[in-house]
Amino acid sequence: MESLQFTHQTQEWATIAHNLWEARKKRMYYEKLEQDFLNKLKISSNNTPSRANGFLFSYLERKGNIDYSLIPELVGLNLEQHRNPSVIVWKLEKE
What stretch of H or E contains 56? Predict the structure, then answer.
């Protein structure tokens, strides 16, 4: 893996980075809050579809992922030709 070369940016860039950092912290807080409310609603519903005051609470079940590493017929096969295009993911970290 090649070493990344970081360029020094402007104060405007630093402000945007700070705002992104803070937005992510808030998102994580609200995601946890959402999960807490979801769990409380499941318990209150006895894990059954429920309704009240115009709210409907239900679920759908999806099939689990296939663990291809456990399929003996695929051992040694090159599956790269079936891979989707690569994706670039940006991340913000604090030094």
Answer: strand 55-57
